[in-house]
Amino acid sequence: MNSVPGFAPEAPAGLAQAPQHVKLAVDLIMLLEQQQIADADIMAALEIVVNDYRNKLKVGGNSTSHIPAPAS
User: Which of 27, 46, 54, 68 has the CB geometry, 3.0–4.6 Å to 61, for a possible disulfide?
Assistant: First the structure.
């Protein structure tokens, strides 16, 4: 995590042993807070991200790629 250039949050000590999804959530929260974006815009963007990942998983796409899997 923390691969965003110039992004070096001071993570709580226990975070190092946290599950990957918790680390990702903390990184995302800190990144969004640093950008000072309106709450409504953040929520709208997160809805798009969640829907995008759900749709990729439905069609068997790779959740780490923006390219969906080929239709069978």
Answer: 68
CA distance 65 to 7: 22
pLDDT tens digits, residue range 35-71? Answer: 989 999 999 999 999 998 888 888 876 666 666 555 6
DSSP for 28-42, written as a single string: HHHHHHHHT--HHHH
Which residue range is the domain that position 54 belongs to? 37-62
Four-CA torsion 20, 45, 4, 29, nearest 10 degrees? -60
Cα separation, 55 vs 8, whole angstroms:
32
14 part of a folded domain: no
The answer to whether residue 41 sits within a structural domain is yes
